[in-house]
């Protein structure tokens, strides 16, 4: 690649001073204000260095820095770095917190909660669980593993380090830690494209790692930069199979569709594309006011994750049972949505005017009953069929169905997490939910809780990331 510095938006100029954003490229901090951008959510200006294509691309003639580093050593290094992510003592995390609050729609209290949970992402137990769940024999990450087929043919297999561009999600300021860990565990050469709602935290994590050991191969395998999504001058330069094997994309439909046009032989998309999550509540929930209160709290905790800006946050709640109990549930749920939580705030940005117009029309036509308000503290809309809009900003569409079994017809391949009450009914539903396309079923209230090492979006990502390489000494053509 010929040296290329790309200004992806207008140069910084007069007017309000933009927030400075640093890059981190293969172990080196890069500062500059050559390019001015505007954050998508809050419209805050920030300035970055120009994109240097040569610096971002590791030539394929160079073996990946982590190739011969044992996974055990990588996990030890990540765990040690995790100990240094304490918000009270880490100046990079403190800087990232202050600036992320300027561009991210989540309230400061929630962002700070997420920052304080950061060390847990790099615990040895969590990291090993991820590796062992993804690979039947983790030794394939550390070298060539010999195998012999039923005909006596001998070969060897290796999960070779990939070269990846990660389009980081913008709804969770600490989500980048998982992406960094995943990239390190598969020994990848990584470029992280930071989101405009948080172009700070990824660099803070990588600077912390560089402080622990500036020459460590993990550090030299990582780069974090920003460009505006969809900028062809950058993406046509980077999204080429001679440079990268995988594009790992988190984001909305437009972001995913934009990547698809660059795909072809040699470069693949691993997509964590937009999903919708739901809840399914049986008639057992409405037997008494005490149970209704309990279930409403569980449903509210699932719905309000990141103020409903998470794929696992419930949007549609399918309920069976008597109308009177369901209406009491809706009334209590509306109150429980207006509560401060670890990952949600009592006051959130209000629903859009389009949602308000839709709800008002449904109520006017007697097709919906409504509790709560349009002020961002929580809205509950009870209908007989799912609404035609996408519930957001703490809006719950409670749908009265004859039975939970009949609610399965509303599940499809875009349905991610399903919270079920009572939990004992999961077993009877889970095969049909999987057949309909769903990817995860949990107890109601457990949407944000995970079994370590589990799949994400119906796949084990690390398996998809690596470049599977086979060395074969076949003596028989066989029958297969």
UniProtKB/TrEMBL annotation:
EC class of this enzyme?
Answer: oxidoreductase
Record CDD domains: ALDH_Acyl-CoA-Red_LuxC
Q: Which reaction does it catalyse?
A: a long-chain fatty aldehyde + NADP(+) + CoA = a long-chain fatty acyl-CoA + NADPH + H(+)
Keywords from UniProt, A to Z, are: NADP, Oxidoreductase
Which InterPro entries does this entry report, sorted A to Z? Ald_DH/histidinol_DH, CoA_reduct_LuxC
Keyword Metal-binding set for record:
no
Give the EC number: 1.2.1.50
Family, as annotated? Belongs to the LuxC family.
Name listed for the protein in its UniProt record = Acyl-CoA reductase
């Amino acid at each position: 690649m010929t040296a290329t510095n790309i200004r992806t938006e207008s140069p910084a100029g007069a007017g309000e001073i933009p927030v400075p954003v640093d890059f981190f490229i293969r172990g080196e901090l890069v500062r500059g204000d050559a390019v001015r951008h505007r954050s998508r959510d809050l419209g805050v200006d920030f300035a970055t260095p120009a994109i240097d294509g040569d610096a971002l691309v590791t030539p394929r003639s160079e073996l990946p820095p982590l190739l011969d580093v044992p996974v055990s050593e990588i996990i030890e290094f990540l765990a040690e770095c995790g100990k240094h992510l304490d918000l009270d003592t880490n100046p990079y995390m403190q800087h990232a917190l202050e600036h992320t609050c300027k561009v991210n729609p989540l309230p400061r209290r929630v962002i700070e909660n997420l920052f304080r949970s950061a060390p847990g992402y790099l615990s040895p137990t969590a990291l090993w669980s991820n590796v062992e769940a993804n690979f039947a024999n983790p030794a394939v990450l550390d070298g060539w593993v010999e195998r012999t087929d039923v005909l006596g043919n001998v070969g060897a297999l290796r999960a070779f380090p990939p070269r990846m561009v990660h389009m980081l999600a913008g709804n969770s300021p600490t989500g980048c830690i998982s992406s960094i860990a995943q990239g390190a565990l598969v020994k990848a050469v990584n470029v992280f494209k930071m989101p405009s709602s948080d172009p700070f935290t990824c660099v803070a994590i990588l600077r912390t790692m560089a402080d622990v050991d500036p020459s460590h191969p993990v550090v030299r395998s990582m780069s974090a930069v920003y460009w505006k999504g969809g900028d062809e001058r950058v993406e046509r330069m980077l999204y080429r199979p001679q440079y990268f094997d995988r594009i790992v994309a988190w984001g909305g439909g437009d972001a995913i569709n934009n990547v698809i046009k660059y795909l072809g032989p040699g470069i693949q998309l691993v997509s964590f594309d937009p999903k919708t999550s739901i809840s399914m509540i049986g008639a057992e929930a409405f037997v008494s006011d005490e149970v209704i209160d309990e279930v409403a709290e569980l449903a509210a905790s699932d719905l309000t994750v990141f103020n409903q800006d998470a794929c696992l946050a419930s949007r549609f709640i399918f309920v069976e049972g008597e109308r009177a109990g369901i209406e009491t549930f809706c009334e209590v749920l509306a109150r429980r949505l207006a509560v401060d939580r670890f990952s949600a705030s009592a006051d959130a940005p209000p629903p859009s005017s389009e949602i308000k117009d839709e709800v008002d029309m449904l109520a006017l036509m007697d097709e919906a009953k409504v509790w709560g308000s349009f002020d961002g503290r929580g809205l509950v809309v009870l209908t007989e069929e799912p609404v035609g809009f996408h519930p957001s900003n703490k809006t719950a569409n409670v749908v009265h169905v004859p039975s939970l079994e009949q609610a399965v017809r509303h599940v499809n391949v875009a349905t991610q997490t399903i919270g079920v009450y009572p939990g004992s009914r999961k077993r009877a539903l889970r095969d049909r939910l999987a057949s309909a396309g769903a990817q995860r079923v949990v107890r109601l209230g457990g949407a944000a809780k995970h079994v370590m090492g589990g799949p994400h979006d119906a796949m084990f990502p690390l398996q998809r990331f690596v470049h599977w390489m086979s060395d074969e000494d076949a003596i028989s053509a066989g029958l297969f």
